[in-house]
Design goal:
CATH architecture: 3-Layer(aba) Sandwich
GO molecular function, one term: acyltransferase activity, transferring groups other than amino-acyl groups
Protein name: RimJ/RimL family protein N-acetyltransferase
Structural class: alpha+beta
Largest sheet: 6 strands, mixed
Radius of gyration: 16 Å
CATH class: Alpha Beta
Shape: globular
Distance between the termini: 20 Å
CATH superfamily: Gcn5-related N-acetyltransferase (GNAT)
């Protein structure tokens, strides 16, 4: 994983044009221009770094090319909890990028930033992400029924959680 660079705009613009992949994400938006994608990527690359709430590029080891991104959000330093989101471009699915990025992110947040619990929300129609989180050892903690409308249907939002102890037992 690495920080976002201005030249990454083309890869992320291409990922955003894959409507099937975007439908599994947070929100489906109309297509944006290449100029806007270039500008937003450059602005993001120049933002000041926050040690707890950030977005990183998931990059291929062989050529450092972007294959996706991972971000933290809903950071609660008082209670030691955070949530994250992850997106991997369709051409890079099923190659282990998401798994590796999540495990690394959790290690950083648990052992370097002292958080005690990670959460992830997954839409019920996103079977690959549901399966990934279960394989990683996340516990299904709840469900917000019919909380998202996309592709002509309502989806539940499944809440997953993992504590630092559960992570340590599995990965340390």
């Amino acid at each position: 994983m690495r920080g976002r660079e201005p030249e990454d705009w083309e890869a992320f613009h291409a990922f955003d044009e894959d409507s099937d992949a975007v439908r599994n994400g947070w929100r489906l938006t109309p297509p944006q221009s290449a100029a806007r994608a270039r500008k937003e990527t450059a602005e993001h690359a120049e933002r000041e770094l926050d040690l707890d709430e950030f977005s990183l590029v998931i990059a291929a080891k062989q050529d450092d090319a972007p294959v996706g991104s991972v971000n933290t959000h809903a950071v609660d330093r008082v209670h030691g909890t955070f949530a994250y989101g992850i997106s991997v471009g369709t051409p890079h699915h099923r190659k282990g990028y998401a798994r590796e990025a999540i495990v690394l992110l959790l290690r950083y947040m648990f052992f370097e930033r002292r958080f005690q619990k990670a959460e992830a929300w997954v839409y019920s129609s996103n079977e690959p992400s549901l399966a990934l989180h279960r394989r990683l050892g996340f516990v299904e903690e709840g469900r917000r029924r019919r909380s998202r409308y996309a592709n002509g249907r309502y989806d539940d939002e499944v809440l997953f959680g993992m504590t630092v102890e559960e992570y340590t037992e599995r990965y340390a």
